[in-house]
Write a structure and sequence with these properties.
It is found in: Cell membrane. The chain is mostly helical. The protein contains 16 helices and no strands.
Length: 348
């Protein structure tokens, strides 16, 4: 009688626990293959053209700006994995889901992270049991509702506290609304990838048995795994964003300035395409004041950018299922658009 095959999963040298083999989804492999083909083809066909230098500078600046923050986020996520027991996190969460979502949307005030760093942190918190709605609220609100974003907004707009407060309030309100709606539309199992479910974090068992330095090393290993897992999506997102920025015609601005609906939509598109950091968005938005761009459109850029851009959507592939990403993207864009449209006409 033939014996069933035994599949062994590797023991991780840092933490001593059984780790599952990493699995790359078919969609992820297709995206990576398409990216490599496109990048090589782009270099061969346009490598000697004048626009290629602009593309190269933009691509390099996006990657170099985002990498340190993403590395910090991965490190924080790894330390959460080994130093924050699931039971402790569960005890900190209120029993009421809506209250948990509101608290998560404002968590950036005491735990500020840039959007380049937020995804690995949220992944680890989700694996520790953070509810879906709260995860979405922190994912969207964390990069805006924090002191660093407020300080950069004040610096960009000449210490105008009203601008900074409006940005923080809109970030909090939209992040909370998106979290509540995602909780209504999806369960954890429907929205979150299986490998990110509670108890499926690749390191089964507790790290409490080891000493401090053993656990610190395990946290660094987990952080490195997150960094390399999400870093590929950042590279692809930066490539697409740089390509779009190189190809966008500046004539679009002149046609949209006089119509609030079009100007808000245009600035939202630019926020998605430019893939800037939440601390840099305010300076770019402020530069549009001299073009006559309405304040509502400038605010749409500052609010949507840290919530939804090309690199973020691709990084979401490591956390959410594709249907959830599409729904979250549509919800976020719709909430930002209608909120700023209301603000535009109420302020008139």
């Amino acid at each position: 009688m033939e014996k069933p095959a035994i599949h062994l999963t590797p023991i991780h040298p840092a933490c001593g626990h059984v780790h599952a083999e990493p699995r790359s989804g078919r969609a992820g492999l297709w995206i990576q293959g398409l990216f490599l083909f496109t990048a090589v083809l782009f270099f061969i066909l346009w490598g000697r053209r004048e626009g290629f230098q602009t593309f190269s500078i933009i691509f390099s600046s996006i990657v170099l700006e985002a990498f340190p923050f993403m590395l910090l986020g991965a490190l924080i996520g790894g330390l959460i994995e080994v130093f924050a027991p699931r039971e402790k996190i569960a005890n900190l969460l209120p029993n009421r889901p809506v209250l948990t979502i509101f608290l998560a949307a404002g968590l950036g005030l005491i735990f500020p992270v840039c959007e380049c760093a937020i995804v690995p942190v949220v992944r680890r918190l989700v694996k520790k049991g953070l509810p879906l709605g709260a995860a979405v609220a922190y994912l969207l609100g964390g990069p805006i509702v924090n002191p660093l974003a407020a300080a950069s907004t004040l610096a960009a707009y000449g210490m105008m506290w009203k601008v900074a407060m409006i940005r923080l309030f809109l970030g909090f309100a939209i992040a909370s609304a998106a979290g509540i709606l995602m909780d209504m539309f999806f369960t954890r199992e429907q929205a979150i990838l299986p490998e990110n479910h509670v108890g499926c974090d690749g390191c089964h068992g507790s790290h409490d048995g080891g000493g401090f330095f053993h656990r610190l090393r395990a946290g660094l290993v987990h952080g490195a795994e997150d960094f390399f897992d999400i870093g590929r999506f950042l590279i692809i997102g930066a490539f697409v964003a740089a390509l779009m920025q190189t190809m966008i015609s500046r004539d679009l601005f002149a046609a949209a300035v006089g119509v609030p609906v079009f100007s808000i939509l245009l600035m939202m598109v630019l926020a998605v395409v430019l893939s800037l950091c939440s601390e840099a968005d305010a300076f770019v938005a402020a530069s549009f004041r001299f073009t006559g761009m309405p304040f509502s459109a400038q605010m749409a850029f500052m609010v949507l950018g840290p919530m939804l851009d090309i690199k973020l959507v691709l990084m979401y592939l490591s956390l959410f299922k594709k249907r959830a990403i599409i729904t979250l993207s549509a919800l976020t864009a719709a909430l930002v658009f209608f909120s700023l449209l209301v603000m535009e006409y109420v302020s008139l």
